Amino acid sequence: MGVRLMVVDDHRLLAEALASALKLRGHRVLAAAAPAAGAAELVIARAPEVCLWGTATPAETGAFDPVGRIKRERGQVAVLVLGPVPSPRGIAAAFAAGASGYVRHDERIEGVERAIMKARAGEAAVAPQLLQGAFGELLNPAAQPDDEGQRLLQMLTPREVEVLVRVADGEDTRLIAAGMGIAPSTARTHVQRVLMKLGVGSRLEAAALAARTGLLDRAGPLPGRGAEG
Length: 229
Description:
single chain; alpha/beta; Rossmann fold; Arc Repressor Mutant, subunit A; 2 domains; five-stranded parallel β-sheet; globular; transcription regulation; DNA-binding; DNA binding; transcription; Sig_transdc_resp-reg_receiver
């Protein structure tokens, strides 16, 4: 039996694409929107069974304030957060606001659908290891905020960091390969691994995430470019 849904995401195109995919699987999508001013009010007014709430910045202060408002005014709405590779702090913030689960943006549609069904049933729709980390953060919060840029940097190999910097500089696969002295197919593989590790779906998103978290500043200049400027 289909679920009455709303899809809200930072990227309207992603929200509409996900809404279309869920409609094809028999769910009733009441609306797809970007979380600008008024998105929470729309959810409250429509009162879906499950709201998919996407965010690109789960660790940002106040990222889940709208989720908290929805739960206060429409407690029966299960809110399922869609986001990038999370830190325990981001997961904890989502649950503290009242979210029923957390699903990564790169999850397959089957996984999103399973999470939707769990959320509607009142279950926690989140991978066990993520849930454990979130509860640990809630019980013993860190004294200082997570350094997202440093955390992401530690996930990448030195070669992947160089690829990311080149992606952020606007280099295509051919230029990346030439600059690093590798085959285009190898460069393409490195790019895909970087996107996967960062939990994003495009080079543009990877560049935006790297810039926003300060990862590019930490990475330093590319080899041979230190004197440029």
